[in-house]
Every structure is written in structure tokens, then in C-alpha cells.
Amino acid sequence: MNIEKSPNEGLLDQQKELNRIAKEYDECYRNLSRLYGIPEGQLWTLYEMRLRGGEMAQADLVNVTFMPKQTINSSIKKMEALGLISLSREGNGRRKTVTLTETGEALARRTADRVICAEASSLCKMEEQERAQLLRLFGKYISGLQQSVSDEQLNHTRDTDGYDCGKACSP
Fold first, then answer.
1. Phi, psi (5° rounding) for residue 5?
2. Overall pTM surpassing 0.90 (yes/no)
């Protein structure tokens, strides 16, 4: 892999710093999950359900958490067994709706609500313009990364001696 010949000398250092920040960000949520004594999948389920009024389709939950379907399905089954949620079928019976129970609402107030408030507190430490810039730039980075990953998936079968990162910043 040839990453030293990048046209932008600081690119590798910037990548390292961005990855460090991303891992530190993820660690915040892992720590909260451990602090609250619940699996991450359950914390994210409670979080998303609180943001959406305590009820949502199971398929939508998979889409908004970006977690594997099996992880969410396992979380849902455990949470149902613990009496935190109830499941009901809509229409033709294929679409499942997940609803927080009273016990689930109480747990969400002690966990997910605190996460939501911590995030809001962090964002409030920035000016409105800084928040808008953060969202715009991070969205732009994610879109570019998704495109690069998509391109890589298309080209991954090529037989090469490595990837030339020096072309990463070419127009």
C-alpha cells in the first residue's frame, strides 16, 4: 500500500485522527450501555423509540439504528421477554409494530432520555453555525465514504499489489 505519496501530505494523519475520534465517539455509547447495564442493541432500541413517541415498526427500527436485522430482532425478543416492549401485527400481519410498555418507558427515562440529553448538552456547547457546519461536513464525509466503499465493492476482485492512496485526493 502506497500511502506516503499522497498529494496531501497530512492526509494519513487526518485519517488517523478521524478514526480515533470515531472510535472515541463509539466508546461513549458503549460506556453508557455498560453503565446502564443493558446491551447496546437495547439502548439504541430504547433511544430510537423515545425519539419517535414510543412506538414504531420493527423494520423502521432496523433502518434507523443501522444495526444488523438479526441484532435488532434479538434485542426485540429479549426486550419482549423482559416486558419492556409489546409487539403487534399490522394489516396483513407481516408488519410488526414495537411499542414500549410502562416498564419499558420507565427504563427509557433512566437510560435513553439521559443519552438524548447528554447529546443535546454537547451540541449546545457549539454555536448554531458550528452545529450546522458539523452536520454538513460529517454528512459530506459519510457520503464520500459510502461512494468509496461502493466503488471498492465493485472493484474488489481486481488482482492488484495494493491500493495507491496517492490517487485518493485527485480531482
1. -95, 20
2. no
